[in-house]
Protein 1
Amino acid sequence: MGEKDTKGEVKVKHKANKLKRLNDHESTDAGGDTIRNGKSVKREPEDEDFTAKKKGLKRKRIKDEPQEGSSQSTATPTSKKKSKDHGRGDESDGEAEKKKAKKRTKKAVKKEEGGDHPVSKKPKKTKDEVDEARQLKIKKKEDEEKSRWRWWEEEKYEDGVKWKFLEHKGPNFPPEYQPLPDNVHFYYAGKKVKLSLEAEEVAMFFAQMLDHEYTTKKAFRENFFNDWRKEMSESERLLIQDLDKCNFGEIHAMHKAKVEARKNFTKEEKLALKEANQKIVDEYGFCLLDKHKERIGNFKIEPPGLFRGRGEHPKMGMLKKRIQPEGVIINCSRESHVPLPPAGHRWKEVRHDNTVTWLASWTENIQGSIKYIMLNANSKLKGEKDWEKYEIARKLKTCVDSIRSQYMLDLKSREMRTRQRAVALYFIDKLALRAGNEKEEGESADTVGCCSLRVEHITLHKQLEGNDCVVEFDFLGKDSIRYYNKVPVISKVFKSLSLFLENKQPGDDLFDRLNVTKLNKHLCTLMPGLTAKVFRTYNASITLQQQLKELTNKSDNEPEKLLSYNRANRAVAILCNHQRAPPKTFDQSMANLQAKIDARKEQLSLAKTELKQAKKEAKTKGSSDAKLQTLVERKKSTVKRCEEMVLKMEVQATDREENKQIALGTSKLNYLDPRISVAWSKNMEVPIEKIYNKSLRDKFAWAIDMTEADFVF
DNA sequence: GGGGGAACTTAGCAGCAATTAT
DNA sequence: ATAATTGCTGCTAAGTTCCCCC
């Protein structure tokens, strides 16, 4: 095991890295929150009626609406029976809703056919027109629903097979470089220099970014200049030796003017642009997969440009090269219409591998990694995998207790590697840390996860802020996002950590006898399919479920319910350390909202006095006066309306304030079992649209379709 | 085991589109 | 009608995991 020690020595170097983001806000609130949350994570919901679903039984059919004709030859229909034994109320609700919607649409269609509308006048929309538009929307939604591939009702393929038929148009290539017009020049040491096309294109990349702070960074400039010179002709290289003597001013100005001009396009121009884009989407954005048209996630080849990694990336500024068809591998069915390469070009390779999900791939020149063209999140291939992910996390729920007691025992092990593994697992479970693979130095920013933590990333406090045994974490995680947290731990963990720290330098590995592979191998023996990241999924989802239960009441009104949902979501985001830069206009928009609240409050108090007045009048003039009675009623409703508005806005303000530096989207998209949210939405009678936008609804169509109100993660 | 490549998920942000305020 | 604000989408970097080979 000595080999790690050598590695440790090498690593002493990169302690220079200081935490870059959020430095000023952090230590107070983020730390507190996370600890608070860390506690709540561990609480398990009391209800134990969780029933593990067997793998084979997973594909139960939920709705018994007729399937449209798209059903597949290979698929065997599964049981159509819907379990009617519970949740009657909400089920009929859902169905009734649907029928209503259908009826409405039919009416709308008839109306249209009847043609009792005068030809629409441009400026003002009549009520009918608005109504019509709404009907059209509903109709569209239904059509979409109808054409949706309900893959979750079909049998799975045999192991490893991802598709049986795949046909597509290949990737879309970015437009060629447009040379500079004759009146725009590049200057070197004050003299006009006409660059070769290749060098000019790269100069353009740099000129475009001149407004960005990072073009002033040393590493960025050096990397750029280095790569730029590689694109130059012999003579250019001889001439251009110093970036500081380069003047990109005219190119920069031209670019800015172009951007400005685009902003000021006329309606027609904008429309034309939009249509041109749509055409590309229509042509390249879809593929045919097992008889179903599926959307492709990223059908465009990444355009060339200057690489900007996140954080202190050693390769920032390097030239990301233009990809030619000669570098692209196509993957599709042998019997499909193989995509044609752009004229005058050929593909690197065409293969027919149905054990992978990608349609095309190329090797990128910065890291030498492979990039893929893959399907959209709403596709079968992605959806099925996602569903499986949550099923594994739910399986962890059934055995997490025994796994926890196991690592508690392991904390006492006399074997160092077992003990380190136990502590790492304790962190991964309690704090939802990422696994933390080791990274090659100099290839990317210096970031770490659990297993790659170094001595310099933690500080032990026997006592801190009234707590015993506190571990203070301070490191840069994925995307160079700072993780800062002060966590009280059990004394066994604390003692072990002190032991791990003995005789080590700040740059040494904290867990010198552990890496992700070893950890995952161990986890796999505890539960098939268990890896470090499953804990993140599990803890995120279980936290949401438990927080929702704790925070929401059926009697709350909708804004309150939504606030609670967001708060539950937020607890998860804090746990997973999903941060965002505070919006640039945050303070301003907060103040605006407050002003609106104040204004509305004033209106409210006015309405209240008016109501009192009216009541008094009604009393004195006798209650028989119907006019006065209605006046009182009217005033009452005004007061009520105002109160609701104020409440709604105040709730909104709280929500926004709490959300300042927290990104909710990531957990919603990647960590929270959608069935929890769908069940909540049914239970609370909050429409799913309020918590999931269109793309989320598409991505989680499987969950929305199959989940009943009684679902338990 | 461990090094390395392949495949796939997770992540934040820029810019644009949609919505709301003025 | 226009401006401000918010919400989403597209983009692509940065992770994790798996698997093969030595």
Note: Residues 3, 310, 356-358, 361, 368-370, 372, 374, 382, 385-386, 389, 434, 478-479, 481, 515, 517-518, 533, 578-581, 592, 596, 663, 665-666, 669-671 of chain A lie near DNA strand B (CB under 10 Å from a C1').
Protein 2
Amino acid sequence: MNTQHISLTIGAVAKRVGVAIDTIRYYEREGLLPEPVRRASGYRSYGEGTIAQLRFIRRAKDLGFTLEEIRELLVLSADRQRGVKAVKQRAQQRLAAIELRITELQRVRDGLAQLVESCPGHGKPEECPILRALSDEVLS
Amino acid sequence: MNTQHISLTIGAVAKRVGVAIDTIRYYEREGLLPEPVRRASGYRSYGEGTIAQLRFIRRAKDLGFTLEEIRELLVLSADRQRGVKAVKQRAQQRLAAIELRITELQRVRDGLAQLVESCPGHGKPEECPILRALSDEVLS
DNA sequence: CTAGACCCGTGATCCAGGTCTAGAGTCAAG
DNA sequence: CTTGACTCTAGACCTGGATCACGGGTCTAG
């Protein structure tokens, strides 16, 4: 077992994870990262655990979780009793929200696509279906 | 032809269109609405044209255009020469952006759906596929 | 005439998720 | 020892699209 404790500066961590230094400090302020050990100089000193946690945060963000939700996920992931159940639940909620958003966007896309298709691209403005849709009373 | 000029207060316009008074003043500041005629008291006085324009703005917003883009659409809609062509172009760009966004979200949804599906909803955190995906090195 | 509803402009505030600044201290290479 | 890169804190600022607060003026029904 390798229990060697490496010590990384905030800049090194930032580079490894591909995130800005300011973002790391911001996450710390927001409670997404624990307060790190400090060197005598006051410099933050990080170990591998922080790298993992930062990656966790970034992946969760990529999956559409807000920082607020991620904060919660981090707590849950440490709960050996109810953690997994709650995590799955949060993931399902997120999934439902994403699906809703997709559906909304698809409706918008379909509406817009139909307008684009029906517009000849020339002629008088008052005959342009796009402008008409934007101006007229009813837009289905 | 009915050229009767009605005169609406900002509050009446807001109610008709279903938008807040502050929003109307905000759009005016932002150049999306022309500066209206004023009564002797300084009150804004609006006609039907404003109603139409406000609805235009709202519909365009519903189609995913930003206020910046809408400002442009408003200019283009008044251009009798090149207006229609340019409007169609903007609509196509918007459409492409929405489609890109949908694709992104679908990828996220698929990833998340797979994780949710493979998670039993109980057991040890280190065996939860969701937590593993968030923590582990590679997430396809 | 008065109460209550409405309107005025200016500027501040909100949301999330950072990003940037200033001024000062620290570290490592040469 | 110096130079340049790095880090520290606190707080200001940014994006977009509003929304709210303030102190004051106006309008209208009774």
Note: The first strand of chain B starts at residue 37 and ends at 38.
